[in-house]
Amino acid sequence: MLAPGDRRLLLDALAPPTDYRLDEAVGTTYTLDLLALLRVPLAATALPWADRSGGPVNNPFALLAALRQNAKRVSLFCHAGATSVPGGYVPLLVFLEDAVLPVTPPLGGVFHPKVWLLRFAPVREEDPVRYRLLVLSRNLTFDRTWDTALVLDGELTGRPSANNRPLSEFVAALPAMATAAGTEVVSEVQERVDRLAAEVRRVAWDLPQGFDALDFHPLGHRSGTRNPVRDLRRLLIVAPFVGGDLLAKLVGEVSGDIRLVGRFNELIRLEPEALEAFDSVDVFDDGAGLLDIEEEERTPSPDAANVELAGLHAKVFVGERGKHAVVFVGSANATGAAFRQNVELLVELRGSRKQHGIDATRKGLEEAGLLQPFVAGDTPEKNSTSGLRRTLQQAAHRLATALVGQVAEHAGLGWRVTLELRRPPELGELTAQLRPLALDQWRSVEINASPVCGFVIPHVASVSAFFALRVAGRQDGELQVEEVTVRVPLDGAPDGRLEAVTAELLNDRDRLLRFILVLLADDVDADGMLDELEHILSGRDGDAPAPARGTLGDSGIPLLEPLLKTLHRDPDRLDEIDRLLADVERAGGDGGVLIPDDLRQLWATITALRAGER
Amino acid sequence: MSTLTWLDFSDVERKRALQVVELLGRKDTRDELGLGAVRDAFANALFPGMSTVQRRAAYFLIVPWTFRMIERRPPRSGAAIEHVRWHELRTIDALLADGDRDGVIGGRVGQGLRQLPSMIYWSGLGRLGIRHSDGTREQWSRAVERGLVVTHDDDGQVVLGDSRTSWWDAGLPEPPEGFPQEVSLHLRPQDGEYVRARIIDRCPGTVLAVLAQRERPWEPTAFPWELDLPELTSKQADLLRHARRFSERMNGAALLYNHALAVAFEDALLTDTYAGALEMWAAREAALPLMELEETWAMLERLGSRHTPRTSRFVERWNELARDAGSVLSDRRFTDCVRERELEVKHKQARLSFPAARETWRGAAGVDQLEYRWSSTQRQLLDIVRAGRN
């Protein structure tokens, strides 16, 4: 189990099976990188989701096409105030506003689960509805750590199954956690959750090879949940974060051998006695950065600006019960917080000892050279992150759940956004500042004033529910700052923002026409089309050869043939173009690009043909 | 298909992880002092498209043949990439049966092989233009499943001419009769010629291209500079010279590092062994001209090397100390330099600074002199040059 070469790509795991399309998706995460979420809708399309060098796609046209089609099908619940600030503002983020739902965990702690539940609708009506469940150990970020992915495929049947009930309850509990954080849960989202929670009870899951039973263990979504890692004769714990008290508890409960694989920097913080009872303690060491790795030439992506992390992040508990191996995977670290306060999801899989047991798993890692024995020092290392960091994070969470905003037109200068706090939190000595993600200027948050903060935003496409929040404090004279993105419920936000962003991106005729080609080319030439668009964006129009097949006016863009092909094969696809043209038209009223006359005529003809065909 | 696996966000991450796994087992490949970026810059300039995990040149053909075969007759059920995987595992036995077993990927682990040849060669095939579509193996699979990769004419025949849609170069030769049941690591003349032509086309002006055009095989050497290379241009010779001096100069640091650990462990035998190696290193360095680092940095910048300023400082410092290479064992500053560097790169896991980290040393760590992927490159080049002969 978990041989190092057994790997899966996230977007591949989110992609619908052949002859299915994405209908609804509900996800959860603790930390969030909005730019990672921006890529998720790509998985439901046939567009490339890796760029030339294998990194995450940066092509704004691919992202725009995917977002227009699929962003409204996604609801992502995330811990309020744990979203990072993107390196630069990306206007396309406005498409994610309705998808991001910050929550607050009911028992304190953090909202920690990393789950995706997807509903796939069949293309052929006689086929059944399919579901997919992803239970991951990684948050929705670009972190490059060793994480597990449990991917379960299932079919919607007529009969409920008892062991799906905890999963259903977990999903059903999500909206209340959002509401508690001040997030508005609109009817579409509630209906989505209701439907998925109801249907998931009736899903028959395929199990991964070598497993024959599964159980779901959500924790912390209500009071009274228990630690499921019990009644085991032997245990192997694989976790990046470990707490002495939980380890001691597990040591006391396991009758046979107990083993640990962890991160060096965390193991050295434990009291040596905590590890004495373990039969083996290993460091997970992937030698990152030190090996002769072939690096592709690539332009560094602005998103992956973080220092490349490496190392263990997977949380796996492998045990034996009777003659079976029992494997728990998911989001829970080996800490007390995971099992007492946080919201987590663990899946328990029962399987063959030979394939998935402790010995097989540990041996596999050892033989791959990933384990090094850990020798405890005499005294534990002190925790280098001060209590202040924690205080700042908690303050960020409280502010994130308390902010509300109001938008109004501002006498010809644009839009005025004012922010208030529903329940002003106690900040003590800490200070807070805000800025809209699209602007650079920070303003102080005056807790006791009304409004607490205000901005004038000149351009409608820059009005967004996403704000950067900066909380600062001093400890021992040293200043520490926590910067996060918050999603603020906005009342009175102007209509037409999505259209404005779309029109801005397609702000000349060439781009508009070629984007339409992208929408039509949901197959073979998607890569080629996107490359051409890249050329245009970087001003290298002259290089792109113009194949002269069915031109449109004198731009040399061959729109006619693909339009006719699509009209014949898949006319519903043309609805998407209808919507696009309507959006561009609406936004164009502001002085933006208007639809070229020849395209308008062509489109009128196509529309008439469609009406005729019906 | 339900699975429990490790997770990657993107293909580049996955490739890296697979390479990590491949190389971890080989303890001498660890670069303990953080010189990887410089090493990669030289290696990419000398031998693009090559990697240490590649084995035999035949895979540059066997892999695309397998994929193209599936493109032409797409499977009716199941993921195309799973069919490829099945064929790749079968190829292991077929290759072993053919006789030349040296370098058969999966020759040892057999059907349990995780890192398939297609994963190992994927980026090299792209670099040489044998694979001309960008995308991952999964994307290829999805394209095939949607019927998008080859076109069929009205009779249902595959239209080979429309190579625009196939992911593989139109010029790829047809495989021998009997493929895939019969397959060999031995290259036919047209196979060797094809790979050579791709190298010349996509990597012009590199040492790789120069060597690929040799007519006769040579006695294998440990390092590329040990070959007699009259056909190099002065620019290429310069590149090789700088790569060589860097490799030789910095090897002293790696040896001293291990020497220091041997001392810390009070291992007399290893201490002596490393001391001897260091004396030889010092003697050789004393006899060579000083290293002109300014030129080296300028060259590395042109090559787009991604080393950090800290790495440059370390190399400068070591180079400075090594002017008096004979004092490497007697002057404390040499060991201090190495210790500080390790601390900078590995923090709490720096063995020379933290006793707790020391346990992971197994007697030798990163002692091999940098060879810039020469070992796997040379082997594959010899395969190409020997194509068509025995």
Q: Give helix and strand order of chain B, one letter per element, not per position.
A: EHHHHHHEEHHHHHHHHH
Number of strands of chain B: 3
Which band does the percent of strand residues of chain A land in? Answer: 15-25%
Dominant shape of chain B = globular
Name the average pLDDT of chain B.
Answer: 88
In round numbers, the mean pLDDT of chain A is: 86
Beta-strand content of chain B: under 5%
- Main beta-sheet annotation of chain A: 8 strands, mixed
SS-derived structural category of chain B: mainly alpha
Strand order, largest beta sheet of chain B: 2-3
Instruction: Report the C-alpha radius of gyration of chain B, rounded.
Output: 24 Å
Low-pLDDT regions of chain A: 296-309, 540-551
Number of helices of chain B: 15
Quaternary state of the chains: heterodimer
Q: What are the low-pLDDT stretches of chain B, counting only 5+ consecutive residues below 50?
A: 160-164
Helicity range of chain A: 25-40%
**Category from helices, strands and their pairing of chain A:** alpha+beta
Q: Measure the end-to-end span of chain A.
A: 54 Å
Count up the helices of chain A: 18
- Please give the most extensive interface between any two protein chains, plus how many residues each contributes: A-B, 80 and 68 residues
